[in-house]
């Protein structure tokens, strides 16, 4: 439950701070799938 809330909060912040949908999608996918840079 905590992880899910954390992810939702992250998505909200990412959407607010990122202008490009492509960049946002990349960040979101990295967060959700745990991809490392």
Concise synopsis of the structure shown:
The protein is mainly α. Helix content is 78%, strand content 0%.
Total strand count, please?
A: 0
Low-confidence stretches: none
Q: Determine the N-to-C terminus distance.
A: 26 Å
Q: Structural class, from secondary structure content? A: mainly alpha
Strand content: under 5%
Output the helix-strand order: HH
How would you describe this structure to a colleague?
By secondary structure, this protein is an all-alpha fold. The chain has one domain (2-33). Helices cover 78% and strands 0% of the residues. It has helices spanning 2-17, 21-33. Helix 1 packs antiparallel against helix 2. The longest helix has 16 residues, at 2-17.
Supply the key terms.
flat; mainly alpha; 78% helix; 0% strand; 37 residues
Secondary-structure map:
Blueprint: H1 2-17, H2 21-33
Helix pairs in contact: 1-2
């Amino acid at each position: 439950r905590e992880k899910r809330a954390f992810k939702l909060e992250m998505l909200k912040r990412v959407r607010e701070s990122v202008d490009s949908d492509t960049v946002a999608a990349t960040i979101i996918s990295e967060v959700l799938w745990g991809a490392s840079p």
